[in-house]
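Researcher: Sequence of 6-phosphofructokinase follows. Predict its structure.
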Amino acid sequence: GQTIGVFTSGGDSQGMNAAVRAVVRMGLYLGCKVYTIKEGYQGMVDGGDHIVESTWSGVSGTIEKGGTIIGSARCKAFREREGRLKAAGNLVRCGINNLVCIGGDGSLTGANLFKQEWKGLLSELYEAGEISETEMQQTMYLNIAGIVGSIDNDFCGTDMTIGTDTALHRIIEAVDAIGTTASSHQRCFVMEVMGRHCGYLALVAAMASEADFVFIPENPVASGWQEQLCGKLKQERDIGQRLNIIIVAEGAIDSHGQPITANDVKKLVTERLGYDTRVTVLGHVQRGGNPSAFDRLLASRMGAEAVMALVDASGDTPAVVIALDGNQIKRRSLMGCVKRTLYVQEAMKNKEFEKCIEARGRSFAK
Ligand code: ADP
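Model: Prediction complete. Tokens:
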């Protein structure tokens, strides 16, 4: 059996533990050795007791936990070749040449770079006497399977990322809770949700919670939006609605590229309509709490598939990312997905929204 290392990296999201658990258990089931690497790339660079062999019972009671138990970190050292050399040495000494990277596009980009450099890193370690010839031969190729953990659903190539569904639950629970009190007092609530570069959470939460208005980065509101918004709120009140809910994504802007904040909206509604208006900023609540059933299952399916992809790899197989396509779990080119994601980020930066939406939605050839 192979030797697999699994780690979580970058921003945390609910369901990461379920993915780690599935990797460990599927790996053991298929006769592999599985190590968990604590604190992402930092643990890989530091080595020692950050790299721990895992057991079947070692991951029990983790599927329902939010965040990531094995820790996540941003790691400066791994951005330098020097750091990656140390990381490679620590992996090779444990016999690890298969990695499951659970993180965002940054973490997956790092993993791909690591794979490209692997051969050179091993030669250097061997020449410096850091690893033996046998160790080098046993870990000749580095195989990578990526799983995307992100509440923003901002990665191209997969329909859903792990954590998004749970974050949506947190948002709509908050809207429902606020709705009852807002209704009692005939208030207007402006809710700021996460999404600096991707309006998915705001848009879907607005649809699921019957919000009156939503602001997202991909759809800058044209001039005159103030009249449109106030007209809509008034119309709802006139037909007997006792509350208003407005959802604003962090990165919302108008057609001049000016940010629209929850406080801007509150000011407008208070001044023009005189409604009692309150702002709620959800913040890290969206990242918190137990993963939903959907995220637990998605993470479990992705974790299992990641291990199967690694077991199937022979020779120098290109890195894959595990994706959800409709209701199927698929393997896709990690580099293809990362490239598409960076293209979308660039389009967002340049305010080329149609380009961005088209690229996000386009179906993906394997
Ligand atoms: P995310 O994975 O959530 O997008 P980051 O972009 O912060 O989060 O990436 C997490 C970690 O991955 C970084 O701290 C760094 O150690 C590693 N990383 C990211 N990009 C690269 C890169 N281009 N080269 C090497 N390592 C990288």
